[in-house]
Amino acid sequence: QLQAFGGGLVQAGGSLRLSCLASGSTLSSYTMTWFRQAPGKEREFTVSIRWSGGTTQYADSVKGRFTISKDTAKSTVYLQTDSLKPEDTATYYCAAGRTIWSTAGDSQYYPYWGQGTQVTVSS
What we know:
123 residues, 4-stranded antiparallel beta sheet, globular
């Protein structure tokens, strides 16, 4: 089970930290990924982290502005979002799956999803 929280309303240039709490499962073999979906658009990959080893990959649109991290003791993945832009406005979802790294950005390989947390960036 995944629980995502930390969204909110922020002005352009601001920051938010999103959290994804995982419970009820051993995460060592999982890839944890944040996707986002803006109104009227398809869900898109944002960033992934391998629970074992901590390898990360970022979408070009957020590289240098977003940072993913994990706290093993708390079974929590964090997404630090900085220098937010209005185009970052979306519902952010965390997902977990035993996917190979080359397909980490494909949402079909994730069986477990959090409920989503809304990020709204005003201009």
